[in-house]
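thought: fold this chain, then report.
action: predict
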Amino acid sequence: MTNSRVAIIGGGLGGLCLAQGLHRAGVDVTVHERDRTPGDRLQGYRIHIDPTGARALNECLPKDLWERFLASATRSGRDFGFLTERMGRLMVMETPRRQDPLDDHHSISRVTLRELLLSGLSDVVRFDRTYERYTREPDGTVTLHFADGTTENADIVVAADGGNSRVRRQYLPHARRIDTGILTVAGRFPLTAETRAQVVPRLWRGPNMIIPPRGCGMFTAPQEFTQEEAGRDGAGDYVMWVFGASTGRFPTGLSDMTGQELRDTVAEMVTGWHPDLRRLVTASAPESVSLLPVRTAVPVDPWPATNITLLGDAVHSMTPMRGIGANAALRDACLLTRALRDGADPVTAIADYEAQMREYGFAAVRRSLRAARQFVDDNRLARAAFRGALRLAGHLPSLRRKALS
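observation:
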Protein backbone atom coordinates (compact mmCIF):
# COMPACT_ATOMS: atom_id res chain seq x y z
CA MET A 1 0.00 0.00 0.00
CA THR A 2 1.38 3.38 -1.02
CA ASN A 3 2.07 6.00 1.65
CA SER A 4 1.61 8.74 -0.93
CA ARG A 5 -0.98 11.49 -0.68
CA VAL A 6 -3.26 11.13 -3.70
CA ALA A 7 -5.29 14.11 -4.96
CA ILE A 8 -8.10 13.46 -7.44
CA ILE A 9 -9.33 16.40 -9.52
CA GLY A 10 -13.02 15.86 -10.29
CA GLY A 11 -15.81 14.09 -8.47
CA GLY A 12 -17.58 12.33 -11.32
CA LEU A 13 -18.20 8.60 -11.44
CA GLY A 14 -14.61 7.63 -12.29
CA GLY A 15 -13.00 9.92 -9.73
CA LEU A 16 -15.34 8.80 -6.96
CA CYS A 17 -14.90 5.12 -7.80
CA LEU A 18 -11.14 5.59 -7.53
CA ALA A 19 -11.58 7.44 -4.24
CA GLN A 20 -13.67 4.56 -2.88
CA GLY A 21 -11.06 2.01 -3.89
CA LEU A 22 -8.13 3.94 -2.45
CA HIS A 23 -9.99 4.91 0.72
CA ARG A 24 -10.94 1.28 1.23
CA ALA A 25 -7.24 0.34 0.91
CA GLY A 26 -6.22 2.90 3.51
CA VAL A 27 -4.58 5.32 1.07
CA ASP A 28 -4.54 9.03 1.97
CA VAL A 29 -6.82 10.37 -0.77
CA THR A 30 -8.75 13.59 -1.37
CA VAL A 31 -11.18 14.55 -4.12
CA HIS A 32 -11.46 18.17 -5.26
CA GLU A 33 -14.84 18.84 -6.89
CA ARG A 34 -15.98 22.15 -8.33
CA ASP A 35 -19.67 21.57 -7.52
CA ARG A 36 -20.64 23.62 -4.49
CA THR A 37 -22.69 20.82 -2.88
CA PRO A 38 -23.37 17.10 -3.46
CA GLY A 39 -26.80 18.02 -4.87
CA ASP A 40 -25.59 20.33 -7.61
CA ARG A 41 -25.33 17.59 -10.23
CA LEU A 42 -28.88 16.25 -10.42
CA GLN A 43 -29.14 14.57 -13.81
CA GLY A 44 -32.37 12.68 -14.25
CA TYR A 45 -31.42 9.78 -16.44
CA ARG A 46 -30.30 6.21 -16.01
CA ILE A 47 -26.87 4.90 -16.80
CA HIS A 48 -25.96 1.51 -18.23
CA ILE A 49 -23.36 -0.43 -16.28
CA ASP A 50 -21.95 -3.35 -18.24
CA PRO A 51 -20.01 -6.30 -16.75
CA THR A 52 -16.75 -4.35 -16.96
CA GLY A 53 -18.23 -1.52 -14.92
CA ALA A 54 -19.91 -3.93 -12.52
CA ARG A 55 -16.64 -5.72 -11.77
CA ALA A 56 -14.90 -2.40 -11.19
CA LEU A 57 -17.56 -1.27 -8.74
CA ASN A 58 -17.49 -4.61 -6.96
CA GLU A 59 -13.73 -4.39 -6.46
CA CYS A 60 -13.59 -0.75 -5.40
CA LEU A 61 -16.67 -0.48 -3.20
CA PRO A 62 -17.05 -1.78 0.35
CA LYS A 63 -19.38 -4.75 0.55
CA ASP A 64 -22.30 -2.75 1.92
CA LEU A 65 -22.15 -0.22 -0.92
CA TRP A 66 -21.90 -2.99 -3.53
CA GLU A 67 -25.02 -4.54 -2.06
CA ARG A 68 -26.72 -1.14 -2.15
CA PHE A 69 -25.79 -0.86 -5.81
CA LEU A 70 -27.37 -4.22 -6.58
CA ALA A 71 -30.49 -3.29 -4.61
CA SER A 72 -30.82 0.03 -6.46
CA ALA A 73 -30.05 -1.19 -9.98
CA THR A 74 -32.24 -3.02 -12.42
CA ARG A 75 -30.57 -6.27 -13.47
CA SER A 76 -29.91 -6.96 -17.12
CA GLY A 77 -30.03 -4.58 -20.05
CA ARG A 78 -33.21 -4.52 -22.07
CA ASP A 79 -33.45 -5.89 -25.57
CA PHE A 80 -31.83 -3.45 -28.01
CA GLY A 81 -33.69 -2.80 -31.24
CA PHE A 82 -32.36 -1.77 -34.64
CA LEU A 83 -35.21 -0.30 -36.64
CA THR A 84 -35.83 1.54 -39.89
CA GLU A 85 -37.28 5.05 -39.90
CA ARG A 86 -40.67 3.44 -40.67
CA MET A 87 -40.32 1.21 -37.57
CA GLY A 88 -39.42 -1.86 -39.60
CA ARG A 89 -37.50 -4.37 -37.51
CA LEU A 90 -33.94 -4.97 -38.64
CA MET A 91 -32.72 -6.83 -35.56
CA VAL A 92 -33.44 -7.00 -31.85
CA MET A 93 -30.49 -7.93 -29.65
CA GLU A 94 -31.71 -9.96 -26.70
CA THR A 95 -29.84 -9.53 -23.44
CA PRO A 96 -30.42 -12.60 -21.25
CA ARG A 97 -30.15 -12.15 -17.51
CA ARG A 98 -26.97 -13.60 -16.03
CA GLN A 99 -27.00 -15.47 -12.75
CA ASP A 100 -23.83 -13.77 -11.50
CA PRO A 101 -24.32 -9.98 -11.15
CA LEU A 102 -20.67 -9.50 -12.13
CA ASP A 103 -21.49 -10.91 -15.58
CA ASP A 104 -24.73 -8.99 -15.97
CA HIS A 105 -25.80 -5.60 -17.25
CA HIS A 106 -27.35 -3.09 -14.86
CA SER A 107 -29.34 0.10 -15.17
CA ILE A 108 -29.25 2.67 -12.39
CA SER A 109 -30.19 6.30 -11.91
CA ARG A 110 -27.08 8.44 -12.33
CA VAL A 111 -28.15 10.47 -9.29
CA THR A 112 -28.47 7.30 -7.21
CA LEU A 113 -25.09 5.98 -8.36
CA ARG A 114 -23.32 9.25 -7.57
CA GLU A 115 -24.92 9.39 -4.11
CA LEU A 116 -23.78 5.82 -3.51
CA LEU A 117 -20.23 6.64 -4.62
CA LEU A 118 -20.17 9.63 -2.26
CA SER A 119 -21.21 7.49 0.71
CA GLY A 120 -18.56 7.29 3.41
CA LEU A 121 -16.37 9.93 1.75
CA SER A 122 -17.45 13.02 3.66
CA ASP A 123 -13.87 13.51 4.89
CA VAL A 124 -12.43 12.77 1.45
CA VAL A 125 -14.48 14.85 -1.00
CA ARG A 126 -14.04 18.62 -0.86
CA PHE A 127 -16.71 20.59 -2.69
CA ASP A 128 -16.56 24.08 -4.15
CA ARG A 129 -12.94 23.51 -5.16
CA THR A 130 -12.41 24.77 -8.73
CA TYR A 131 -9.02 23.57 -9.93
CA GLU A 132 -6.97 25.99 -12.03
CA ARG A 133 -3.39 24.72 -12.43
CA TYR A 134 -0.52 22.85 -10.82
CA THR A 135 3.13 23.57 -10.12
CA ARG A 136 5.92 21.10 -9.43
CA GLU A 137 8.03 21.44 -6.31
CA PRO A 138 11.78 20.69 -5.95
CA ASP A 139 11.00 17.64 -3.80
CA GLY A 140 8.93 16.10 -6.63
CA THR A 141 5.54 16.79 -5.11
CA VAL A 142 2.79 18.72 -6.90
CA THR A 143 1.04 21.85 -5.64
CA LEU A 144 -2.53 22.32 -6.79
CA HIS A 145 -3.90 25.83 -7.20
CA PHE A 146 -7.61 26.57 -6.86
CA ALA A 147 -9.78 29.48 -7.93
CA ASP A 148 -10.36 30.63 -4.35
CA GLY A 149 -6.62 31.21 -3.90
CA THR A 150 -5.98 28.10 -1.82
CA THR A 151 -3.39 25.45 -2.59
CA GLU A 152 -2.82 21.83 -1.70
CA ASN A 153 0.25 19.66 -1.95
CA ALA A 154 0.12 16.04 -3.11
CA ASP A 155 2.47 13.22 -4.02
CA ILE A 156 0.23 11.89 -6.80
CA VAL A 157 -2.36 13.79 -8.85
CA VAL A 158 -5.13 12.07 -10.84
CA ALA A 159 -7.03 14.05 -13.46
CA ALA A 160 -10.66 12.94 -13.42
CA ASP A 161 -12.01 16.30 -14.53
CA GLY A 162 -13.77 15.29 -17.73
CA GLY A 163 -13.40 15.99 -21.42
CA ASN A 164 -12.40 19.62 -20.88
CA SER A 165 -9.75 18.61 -18.35
CA ARG A 166 -7.59 21.50 -17.21
CA VAL A 167 -5.02 19.04 -15.92
CA ARG A 168 -4.69 17.43 -19.34
CA ARG A 169 -4.35 20.80 -21.09
CA GLN A 170 -1.33 21.60 -18.91
CA TYR A 171 0.16 18.12 -18.58
CA LEU A 172 -0.40 16.77 -22.11
CA PRO A 173 -1.04 19.88 -24.23
CA HIS A 174 -0.67 17.84 -27.42
CA ALA A 175 -3.54 15.51 -26.42
CA ARG A 176 -6.42 16.97 -28.38
CA ARG A 177 -10.17 16.68 -28.16
CA ILE A 178 -11.90 17.58 -31.41
CA ASP A 179 -15.34 18.07 -32.92
CA THR A 180 -16.40 15.14 -35.06
CA GLY A 181 -18.51 17.25 -37.41
CA ILE A 182 -21.60 15.57 -35.97
CA LEU A 183 -24.36 17.38 -34.12
CA THR A 184 -27.09 15.80 -32.03
CA VAL A 185 -30.32 17.20 -30.66
CA ALA A 186 -31.79 15.43 -27.62
CA GLY A 187 -35.19 15.63 -25.98
CA ARG A 188 -37.57 13.88 -23.62
CA PHE A 189 -40.96 12.39 -24.46
CA PRO A 190 -42.85 12.09 -21.15
CA LEU A 191 -44.02 8.58 -20.28
CA THR A 192 -47.43 8.31 -18.68
CA ALA A 193 -50.26 5.80 -19.00
CA GLU A 194 -51.78 8.10 -21.62
CA THR A 195 -48.63 8.71 -23.66
CA ARG A 196 -47.60 5.04 -23.65
CA ALA A 197 -50.76 4.33 -25.64
CA GLN A 198 -49.76 6.96 -28.22
CA VAL A 199 -46.64 5.15 -29.46
CA VAL A 200 -45.79 1.56 -30.28
CA PRO A 201 -44.59 -0.46 -27.25
CA ARG A 202 -41.15 -1.04 -28.80
CA LEU A 203 -40.30 2.61 -28.09
CA TRP A 204 -40.81 2.31 -24.33
CA ARG A 205 -39.83 -1.31 -23.79
CA GLY A 206 -36.15 -0.89 -24.57
CA PRO A 207 -33.49 1.17 -26.36
CA ASN A 208 -33.48 1.43 -30.14
CA MET A 209 -31.26 2.66 -32.92
CA ILE A 210 -33.23 4.13 -35.82
CA ILE A 211 -31.39 3.73 -39.13
CA PRO A 212 -32.85 5.62 -42.10
CA PRO A 213 -31.50 5.13 -45.65
CA ARG A 214 -28.76 7.75 -45.31
CA GLY A 215 -27.35 10.80 -43.61
CA CYS A 216 -28.74 10.73 -40.07
CA GLY A 217 -29.95 8.53 -37.24
CA MET A 218 -31.91 8.50 -34.02
CA PHE A 219 -31.40 6.76 -30.70
CA THR A 220 -34.27 6.22 -28.26
CA ALA A 221 -34.20 4.83 -24.72
CA PRO A 222 -36.84 4.63 -21.96
CA GLN A 223 -35.82 6.21 -18.67
CA GLU A 224 -37.93 4.90 -15.79
CA PHE A 225 -37.41 5.71 -12.12
CA THR A 226 -38.59 4.43 -8.78
CA GLN A 227 -40.82 6.70 -6.70
CA GLU A 228 -37.87 7.43 -4.41
CA GLU A 229 -35.64 8.40 -7.33
CA ALA A 230 -38.32 10.52 -8.96
CA GLY A 231 -38.96 12.35 -5.71
CA ARG A 232 -35.28 12.98 -5.09
CA ASP A 233 -34.25 14.42 -8.45
CA GLY A 234 -37.60 15.41 -9.93
CA ALA A 235 -37.33 12.90 -12.75
CA GLY A 236 -40.55 11.55 -14.18
CA ASP A 237 -40.43 8.62 -16.60
CA TYR A 238 -39.65 9.53 -20.20
CA VAL A 239 -38.24 8.27 -23.47
CA MET A 240 -34.98 9.99 -24.29
CA TRP A 241 -34.48 10.58 -28.01
CA VAL A 242 -31.31 11.76 -29.72
CA PHE A 243 -31.33 12.77 -33.37
CA GLY A 244 -27.94 13.12 -35.06
CA ALA A 245 -26.57 14.18 -38.42
CA SER A 246 -23.51 15.79 -39.95
CA THR A 247 -23.29 19.51 -39.31
CA GLY A 248 -24.00 20.32 -42.95
CA ARG A 249 -27.39 18.61 -42.87
CA PHE A 250 -28.72 20.98 -40.25
CA PRO A 251 -29.80 24.54 -41.01
CA THR A 252 -27.40 27.32 -40.07
CA GLY A 253 -27.71 29.02 -36.71
CA LEU A 254 -28.45 25.83 -34.80
CA SER A 255 -26.38 26.88 -31.78
CA ASP A 256 -28.52 29.99 -31.32
CA MET A 257 -31.87 28.19 -31.49
CA THR A 258 -34.25 27.87 -28.55
CA GLY A 259 -35.47 24.48 -27.40
CA GLN A 260 -38.67 24.92 -29.36
CA GLU A 261 -36.78 25.89 -32.51
CA LEU A 262 -34.51 22.86 -32.14
CA ARG A 263 -37.53 20.61 -31.66
CA ASP A 264 -39.25 22.04 -34.73
CA THR A 265 -36.08 21.65 -36.77
CA VAL A 266 -35.80 17.96 -35.94
CA ALA A 267 -39.53 17.45 -36.53
CA GLU A 268 -39.06 18.86 -40.02
CA MET A 269 -36.04 16.65 -40.68
CA VAL A 270 -37.94 13.47 -39.75
CA THR A 271 -40.94 14.26 -41.94
CA GLY A 272 -41.85 11.02 -43.64
CA TRP A 273 -40.68 8.85 -40.74
CA HIS A 274 -43.09 6.70 -38.78
CA PRO A 275 -45.61 9.01 -37.04
CA ASP A 276 -44.75 7.56 -33.62
CA LEU A 277 -41.09 8.53 -34.02
CA ARG A 278 -42.13 12.02 -35.06
CA ARG A 279 -44.48 12.14 -32.06
CA LEU A 280 -41.55 11.51 -29.71
CA VAL A 281 -40.11 14.78 -30.98
CA THR A 282 -43.20 16.97 -31.30
CA ALA A 283 -44.63 15.96 -27.88
CA SER A 284 -41.40 16.76 -26.02
CA ALA A 285 -41.42 19.89 -23.89
CA PRO A 286 -39.26 22.61 -25.50
CA GLU A 287 -37.27 23.05 -22.28
CA SER A 288 -36.19 19.39 -22.49
CA VAL A 289 -34.64 19.80 -25.96
CA SER A 290 -30.97 20.67 -26.24
CA LEU A 291 -28.10 20.72 -28.72
CA LEU A 292 -25.20 18.34 -28.03
CA PRO A 293 -22.12 18.51 -30.29
CA VAL A 294 -20.28 15.19 -30.54
CA ARG A 295 -16.59 15.38 -29.63
CA THR A 296 -13.85 12.80 -29.30
CA ALA A 297 -10.30 12.49 -28.05
CA VAL A 298 -7.50 11.95 -30.56
CA PRO A 299 -5.38 8.93 -29.54
CA VAL A 300 -1.85 9.95 -28.61
CA ASP A 301 1.45 8.11 -28.41
CA PRO A 302 2.71 6.97 -25.00
CA TRP A 303 4.16 9.65 -22.75
CA PRO A 304 6.73 9.24 -19.94
CA ALA A 305 5.02 8.32 -16.68
CA THR A 306 5.25 10.71 -13.74
CA ASN A 307 3.31 11.24 -10.54
CA ILE A 308 0.49 12.86 -12.55
CA THR A 309 -1.95 10.62 -14.40
CA LEU A 310 -5.44 10.70 -15.91
CA LEU A 311 -8.58 8.62 -16.11
CA GLY A 312 -11.90 8.57 -17.96
CA ASP A 313 -12.92 11.42 -20.22
CA ALA A 314 -9.92 13.45 -19.08
CA VAL A 315 -7.75 11.24 -21.29
CA HIS A 316 -9.92 9.09 -23.60
CA SER A 317 -13.22 10.92 -24.04
CA MET A 318 -15.31 9.28 -26.71
CA THR A 319 -18.54 9.74 -28.60
CA PRO A 320 -21.66 8.49 -26.80
CA MET A 321 -22.68 6.19 -29.64
CA ARG A 322 -21.69 2.93 -27.94
CA GLY A 323 -22.54 4.00 -24.40
CA ILE A 324 -19.23 2.77 -22.94
CA GLY A 325 -17.57 5.94 -21.66
CA ALA A 326 -18.69 5.60 -18.04
CA ASN A 327 -17.72 1.93 -17.92
CA ALA A 328 -14.28 2.74 -19.31
CA ALA A 329 -13.83 5.33 -16.55
CA LEU A 330 -14.83 2.78 -13.90
CA ARG A 331 -12.36 0.31 -15.40
CA ASP A 332 -9.65 2.97 -15.19
CA ALA A 333 -10.50 3.62 -11.56
CA CYS A 334 -10.29 -0.06 -10.66
CA LEU A 335 -7.00 -0.59 -12.50
CA LEU A 336 -5.44 2.52 -10.96
CA THR A 337 -6.63 1.48 -7.51
CA ARG A 338 -4.78 -1.81 -7.90
CA ALA A 339 -1.68 -0.06 -9.16
CA LEU A 340 -1.48 2.47 -6.33
CA ARG A 341 -2.54 -0.05 -3.71
CA ASP A 342 -0.07 -2.76 -4.67
CA GLY A 343 2.80 -0.93 -6.39
CA ALA A 344 6.00 -0.34 -4.44
CA ASP A 345 7.02 2.63 -6.59
CA PRO A 346 4.11 4.96 -7.54
CA VAL A 347 5.59 6.11 -10.86
CA THR A 348 6.27 2.53 -11.95
CA ALA A 349 2.74 1.60 -10.91
CA ILE A 350 1.32 4.53 -12.86
CA ALA A 351 3.36 3.52 -15.93
CA ASP A 352 1.87 0.02 -15.79
CA TYR A 353 -1.64 1.48 -15.41
CA GLU A 354 -1.20 3.92 -18.29
CA ALA A 355 0.14 1.24 -20.65
CA GLN A 356 -3.02 -0.82 -20.18
CA MET A 357 -5.38 2.17 -20.06
CA ARG A 358 -4.10 3.60 -23.33
CA GLU A 359 -4.59 0.29 -25.10
CA TYR A 360 -8.23 -0.36 -24.18
CA GLY A 361 -9.18 3.30 -23.73
CA PHE A 362 -8.09 4.51 -27.15
CA ALA A 363 -9.42 1.32 -28.75
CA ALA A 364 -12.82 2.29 -27.31
CA VAL A 365 -12.34 5.83 -28.67
CA ARG A 366 -11.80 4.44 -32.15
CA ARG A 367 -14.78 2.07 -31.94
CA SER A 368 -17.12 4.77 -30.71
CA LEU A 369 -15.95 7.18 -33.43
CA ARG A 370 -16.56 4.52 -36.05
CA ALA A 371 -20.05 4.00 -34.65
CA ALA A 372 -20.71 7.76 -34.72
CA ARG A 373 -19.70 8.00 -38.36
CA GLN A 374 -21.83 5.00 -39.19
CA PHE A 375 -24.72 6.69 -37.35
CA VAL A 376 -24.71 9.58 -39.85
CA ASP A 377 -23.30 7.79 -42.91
CA ASP A 378 -24.31 9.66 -46.07
CA ASN A 379 -23.43 6.79 -48.40
CA ARG A 380 -26.72 5.22 -49.44
CA LEU A 381 -25.11 1.99 -50.65
CA ALA A 382 -23.08 1.57 -47.45
CA ARG A 383 -26.17 2.24 -45.32
CA ALA A 384 -28.20 -0.26 -47.35
CA ALA A 385 -25.49 -2.87 -46.85
CA PHE A 386 -25.45 -2.17 -43.11
CA ARG A 387 -29.22 -2.50 -42.85
CA GLY A 388 -29.08 -5.71 -44.86
CA ALA A 389 -26.38 -7.12 -42.57
CA LEU A 390 -28.53 -6.32 -39.54
CA ARG A 391 -31.56 -8.05 -41.07
CA LEU A 392 -29.48 -11.13 -41.83
CA ALA A 393 -27.96 -11.13 -38.35
CA GLY A 394 -31.43 -10.88 -36.90
CA HIS A 395 -32.16 -14.28 -38.39
CA LEU A 396 -28.72 -15.79 -37.77
CA PRO A 397 -27.57 -15.28 -34.16
CA SER A 398 -24.03 -16.36 -35.02
CA LEU A 399 -23.66 -13.27 -37.21
CA ARG A 400 -24.87 -10.71 -34.66
CA ARG A 401 -21.51 -10.06 -33.05
CA LYS A 402 -19.79 -9.72 -36.43
CA ALA A 403 -22.46 -7.32 -37.71
CA LEU A 404 -21.90 -4.98 -34.76
CA SER A 405 -18.09 -5.16 -34.53
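thought: worth noting. The chain has a mean pLDDT of 91.
final: C-alpha coordinates above.
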